[in-house]
Amino acid sequence: MTSRTLNLGILAHVDAGKTTLTERLLFDTGTIDRLGSVDRGTSVTDTMTLERRRGITIRTSVAGFTLGDLRVNLVDTPGHPDFIAEVERALTVLDGVVLVVSAVEGVQSQTRLLMRALHRLELPTTLFINKIDRAGADVDVVRAQIAGLLKPTPGTVVSAGSARTGDGVGALLTTIAGMTVPRSDPHAPAEATVFSIERDRGVWVRMHNGTLRVRDRLGRRSRVTALRSPDGCHLEALGPGEIGLLTGLDHPRVGDRIGSGGTAREVANLQPTTLETVVDAADPTLRGRLLEGLTALADQDPLINLRLDDDRSEVRLSLHGEVQREVIATRLEEEFGVVATFQPLSVVCIERVIGSGHAHEIIDTPTNAYLATVGLRIDPAPVGHGVSFELAVEAGSMPPAFFTAVRSAVDETLQQGLHGWPVTDCVVTMTHSGYWARQSHSHGTFDKSMSSTAGDFRLLTRPVLMRALRAAGTTVCEPVDAFTLDLLPEQVPALLSELARAEVDVTHTGITATEARVEGVIPTRLADSVQRRLPDLTSGEGVWESTLDHHRPVRGAPPQRPRVGVDPGDCAAYVKANPR
Length: 580
Known about the structure:
The protein is α+β, with helices and mostly antiparallel strands. The protein folds into five domains: about 170 residues, Rossmann fold; about 70 residues, Translation factors (Elongation Factor Tu (Ef-tu), domain 3, Beta Barrel), CATH 2.40.30; about 70 residues, Alpha-Beta Plaits, CATH 3.30.70; about 140 residues, Ribosomal Protein S5, domain 2; about 80 residues, 2-Layer Sandwich (Alpha-Beta Plaits). It is built from 13 helices and 29 strands. A six-stranded mixed β-sheet has the order 2-3-1-4-5-6, with helices on both faces. Strand 7 and strand 8 form a beta hairpin. Helix 7 packs across helix 8 and helix 9 packs across helix 10. It is globular and about 75 Å long.
């Protein structure tokens, strides 16, 4: 009889053997009676046809096994960098992690990225050095890499073995059995997070507190119609700490919270999307079906940032790379019956605020078309701060729904700054507020013409914030990758000449008699072209690793991104397009 639940993530760089380890854990605990294979497309957790065909994990999936009184929900996440957003969402629902490192390839760029996030979120982590049975495996070298590059916290267990043969997996199971399970309250109000969506609109949820039962109402339009455990069993209830598949939510999206969600873990923000593309239907008559398919995919992955530009008849997506684009194209064709065309990927920049700016509009004045008073100040914040919203007015000066409308409009407006790029690392402070209380006609009906609504605040916030932003000013910053390149000593001079032409800043060059390493930073927009040149420059010997490192101000004229919709900074056009 199980009494504890542990939600355990299996994380790794691509091809470290993560899904194979998941299969082995399920097999060794008697959950499955036959080992599946990633290469043959028979693994339990890679359920999509596309995953089986490509041999990679694309979406987070869940399986489970039992160890004594411990129920373990295994959350298998993608390893390819293009699907890092799936990993971000998984980290919000986990109690612990097994980070898999290949004994052959060792610590790689994605491994370091994941470990930094695990440190920041303080997630209990054990490391498993996999593939010790493969040619070229060197456990001692990998242990040294782990100590030097990953810097695990004291007491972190590092074990080694082979998921393929089962060697060392028993010791790993013992470690898992000893992991701490967080406390939760089954009698508290229900709190849960949606972290994955199935094709049939069923959603995977992690319960943080409370209990959900079949037939429970969740808002006016949602009701729990069915619950299933990770192994497919029908349930009547889902308790605290548990993961299950729920149906009945009205238009669910990944990241939705059920209840207050106050105990949910923060999103990891591992690596933002740095590329975007314009997509269209090869057959113009199927454009409606294309939009339907993209909307469904955006519900499953909100970070693709679906943007519809009706003025230019364009649909834009934010992506992590070519593999993700290929997967989206295949899913659109196979699941929605539409062949899509994609323009070449282009780099997504950001804007950072460089000064302070303020603007306000007072209710019932000639320049204000809306029944609201809104004043906003925008100030720069440290790099990595993101966008925060603060009040310099009394929290009780107007109804909470009006403040919510302002905050929502702030986030929306900052998706397109002065040059069209998302604005980040700033503090927006509300300095003025005011409204007209609800008015009614003599017979008691609501008189909108004399009463402020949340819509007034939402509509007025956008032009006020754009005026404040214009007063503050922004600088456009482009993404920059940090890279390491291992090559032969005699190849370094030609390589350095090539890098100099690619706006690369070399930060370190180490050369011995037999090998060399070059480290530096390169604009993301140029990284792909340099990598394509490497086989010629290094006779196929060069090994390149890179990951997003930071954003830096663009050198030269800032690039402009086409704006979607009416510019709130053009007051006359904005009010005409958005009448009260």
